[in-house]
Amino acid sequence: MIKELNLKSICIIAGDYSADEPGAHVINRFRQLYPNLRVFGIGGERMRNQGMRLLFHSNDTTFMGFFEILKHYSFIRQMFKKVVSVIKKTKPDAVILMDYPGFNLRLAKKLKRLKIPIFYYIAPQTWAWKEGRVKQIVKYIDHLFVIFPFEKNYFNQFHIPVTYVGNPLARSIVNKPFPFDPLKQLGLKKDLPIISFLPGSREQEIRRHLPVIFETIKILREKFPHWQFVISKSQNISQKIWEKYYTNSNSYLYESNINYLLAHSSAIAVASGTASLQSALHKKPMVIFYKTSPITYFIARLVTKIKYIGMINILDGNLLVTELIQNDFYATNLAHHIQKEVLTFNHQSIKKAKIKKAVDNLLVENSTEKMVVLMLQLISKYKNKQN
Questions:
Q1: Based on the domain organization, do 293 and 373 belong to the same domain?
Q2: Would the N or C end of the chain have less CB density within 10 A of its end CB?
Q3: pLDDT at residue 27, as a whole number
Q4: 100 and 38 in one domain?
């Protein structure tokens, strides 16, 4: 703790559901040092539980794809105006932006003139697409905190102040115990294979992925009647939306902490996104899939610079894990690759070693503590310059 620093409030904008847990860790560390600190902004339930005042809940702010954003443009505009208004009125000691680049970079531009230090944790993936956003980062962000090792060198080439702080998911998963108890309570048997499906955390993902998953389970069940099939429901999906697309498919429905399920899975089929990295951190056989609207996919292929969409593949630079994207995502194909992974993974020593290496490189000891200390030092310097 910097004794001379009189910290009163901070604003955190974490509009994506996946930023909720790392955001909660940041708040927890700040409030250990400053118990009376006021924290406000956009976040999820974990951040609220750490005492954050939510201007908007991340359940209501996660939009993906051009048409989704266009459909909710009026709400996004209203949200933007309110956040700016509250920040101007409150004048926090710092603003911490987390992921959510379309919104957050526009916000950073608007806030720059207020002379408040602006940090970015979980940086925009400009190495994958929309590299033009780098110019905005250079202009409006005071310091970047990145979560993948290669990002430090990437952003350094643009002379952006950047610190690699490790991956928050890796810290919360690797080498941590996840007992079988929650699965036992669900009725699952430890001595039989468990095949897990993670369809995504957005309505459009559920709508496109669940029908294929149901058909895949039907195919595999006929061949392997002793296998246990589990579909995970993200906490980000409301029960009303879930019931629109979920039907009884002779599978178990899992709604608790996903790490317990992943830790005991014989194979995992997961929608591309944060959950695919989360699955890889458990070092289990897995298949990554994704399907979106044809026009969104077409646009994405035009603007994306990277070869793979799964982070474990991006980290290694090779196709370590099968990716079934768009027209390759259909039931017989998914069933084939799941079966292949279950039956061959334990014999793929090189693949397993590469996954372990990629995972180990994501670990940084006391990463949140180190990041918060650096933020406090930067806030202190910023305040001294203003005086």
A1: no
A2: C
A3: 97
A4: yes
User: What distance, in Å, lies between the first and last C-alpha atoms of the chain?
Assistant: 21
Answer whether 41's CB lies under 8 Å from 54's CB: yes
33 and 144 fall within a common domain: yes
pTM here? 0.84
pLDDT digits (tens, 9 = 90+) for 1-42: 555 688 999 999 998 888 999 999 999 999 999 999 999 999
Q: What b-and-e string marks burial along 346-372, b requiring 16 or more CB atoms within 10 Å of the CB?
A: eeeeebeebbeebbeebebeebbebbb
Q: Which domain holds residue 335?
A: 181-360
214 and 128 in one domain?
no
3-class secondary-structure state, position 126: coil
Residue written as tokens 């060198």? Answer: 153
Three-state secondary structure along 25-91? Answer: HHHHHHHHHCCCCEEEEEECHHHHHCCCEEEEEHHHCCCCCHHHHHHCHHHHHHHHHHHHHHHHHHC
Q: Which of 112, 75, 82, 78 is nearest to 97 (CA)?
A: 112
User: Any idea of the CA torsion for 125, 127, 129, 133, to the nearest 10 degrees?
Assistant: 70
Cβ(175)–Cβ(189) under 8 Å?
no
Residue 238 pLDDT: 84
